[in-house]
Design goal:
Layout lengths: L1 H10 L9 H16 L13 H20 L11 H14 L3
Helix pairs in contact: 1-2, 1-3
Length: about 100
């Protein structure tokens, strides 16, 4: 998700065929993902915005479908149950006893 957003942000300043190292890396890693979603990507979306559109699907999966599948009772944009568990484990491991 973040790589797709980074590609769109860098596309503001760089062309997709730029020789800039980071732009080449973003394009190399995100092109296969964008190609997977080409069948559900509407044709009216401008080329530089397609990575944002694809990232939206990852966002929806991450914040809505994943908590539901894992059995969390809280849902929505402001509920981060997986991050809460990770933070609790980090506090337990590195916190003062």
């Amino acid at each position: 998700m973040w790589t797709l957003i980074g590609r769109s942000a860098m596309n503001i300043f760089q062309r997709e065929d730029s020789q800039f190292f980071f732009m080449r890396v973003f394009v190399k890693y995100t092109n296969p993902i964008i190609k997977l979603f080409r069948f559900i990507t509407p044709s009216f979306i401008a080329g530089p915005l397609v990575p944002i559109y694809v990232a939206w699907f990852f966002y929806m999966f991450r914040f809505y479908l994943m908590p539901y599948l894992l059995g969390y009772s809280v849902m929505g944009m402001l509920s981060f149950p997986l991050e809460s568990e990770i933070a609790a484990e980090l506090y337990r491991l590195f916190g003062k006893n």
